[in-house]
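agent: user wants the structure for Peptidase S24 from Pseudomonas fluvialis. delegating to structure tool.
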Amino acid sequence: MSNTQILGALQASSTRLPCFDAHIPAGFPSPALDHMEHKLSLDALLDLQTPHTYVVSVSGDSMAGAGIFDGDHLIVSRAITARPGHVVVACLNGDVLVKRLAQEQGQFILRSENPAYSPRYILENDELTIWGVVTHSLRNHLTHG
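agent: tool returned. relaying tokens verbatim.
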């Protein structure tokens, strides 16, 4: 089961990072690539819409099939209306979860992206609040093995 820890809202930044206009192959790099540097804003790259964007930390493996792994940080937007198919941060009966929102025959479902976990059908007495839609995930590749 994937649980989340809310780390806080993102703040706008004027920091620009160097970005090289070259597609880097995952195989052998081409020495003939012409690298032209420009400055890139992570705010623009991640489409950060402060104050409607926040970061959560994920624990668990229930969303591994969606490329969301234990220890990842998720960028979550409250400005996007959740629709079936979106990965969402949801509060279900007091538990905060990261799941894929689905709907079948009018019934909402929170689905894991790991076959080891069953879908959670939202029942009449359940309290469900969608806190936001996941737009990006960030992973520290130095800590994953």
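agent: one observation worth passing along. The first strand starts at residue 3 and ends at 9.
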